[in-house]
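Standup notes
- DV: blocked on the single-chain target, sequence here:
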Amino acid sequence: MSKYPANVFVDYIDQTTIAIFGKKQDVRYSLTLDNMSSNSEYYASVLLMHPSAANRHTSDALTNQLIRFLSKKDYQEITILTYFPYKVAIAEELYHLISESTLAEVLRKNHKAIRQQIKRSTVFILAWGDRPTYIPKKQFDYALRLFKNMVIEEKCQHKIHLFTYSHADSLSVSGQPANPYRKYIETIEPFDIAAIREEKS
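- DV (later): unblocked, structure below
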């Protein structure tokens, strides 16, 4: 775990704990940080695949990487969201959580959080990366379709962006928005959401 950069604090974290399969499961819908070095009122959101370890008190390498880059770009509010909001110690646990039909309400609340941030944000950056094998293709494709429909319904295509990297492409080999972990972020650029396709079977 890491400390948050000195210029930011956690303004709001939408997190809860549910009981599933006889044990407690943490769910994080959103993490919003305030960049104290900015008065711009520009709001940036980043959509990842699933939550990192960051919480109210401690951060992690990826979250701090996003904070440092977006702070330098003068975004006053930075919100991190995910397709699948379950915080797990072992990533493979996501397969059962995402496939569990009784947790449909969790995903509905997560979709609502994403929609709210699409409308609120100045820029909305896609960075979820390739679908790992422990995330079912059916649920991943559904989440992708739902997100694309949200953007269209809210008329927010102009807000959609990708990171550009030094020595790495903005899109993965399979055509998904590349995750910034262990990459040097150069800037962000507008992106046509229609260019993202579901995986071939």
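- Follow-up: Helices lie at 61-72, 94-99, 104-120, 137-153.
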